[in-house]
Design a protein that fits this description.
The protein has one domain. The protein is built from three helices and five strands, in the order αβαβββαβ. The chain has a five-stranded antiparallel beta sheet with strand order 4-3-2-1-5, covered by helices on one side. The longest helix is centred in the last third of the chain and has 15 residues. It is elongated and about 40 Å long. The two termini are about 15 Å apart.
Length: about 80
C-alpha cells in the first residue's frame, strides 16, 4: 500500500475470505482504507463498513491497519 496511491484516490480493500475457507469458517471480515479528498484530508479505515480509525498521519493509519491484519487474518484484495 502506497501513500501516494491513497492520495490519488485509490481505495485499498482487505478481507479474510481465504482464511475462512482454510478453517471452514463463515466469519468474513472486510476492511477498506482510503484518503478523504473532500473535506478534512484524513486517512480512514472502515472495518465491516464501520469507520473505526481516522487520522491525518499515514504512519498512524498503517499501524492500526497492521493490527487489524494480524488480528483478523486480512489480506489485500487485488483489483
Amino acid at each position: 500500500m502506497k501513500d501516494s496511491e491513497l492520495k490519488k484516490g485509490r481505495t485499498y480493500k482487505f478481507d479474510n475470505e481465504k482464511y475462512q475457507l482454510e478453517i471452514d469458517g463463515d466469519d468474513l471480515r472486510q476492511a477498506e482504507v482510503q484518503f478523504t479528498l473532500n473535506g478534512p484530508r484524513v486517512y480512514n479505515i472502515r472495518f465491516n463498513s464501520k469507520l473505526i480509525h481516522s487520522t491525518r498521519f499515514f504512519s498512524s493509519m498503517k499501524k492500526r491497519l497492521e493490527k487489524l491484519k494480524r488480528d483478523w487474518h486480512l489480506i489485500e484484495k487485488k483489483k
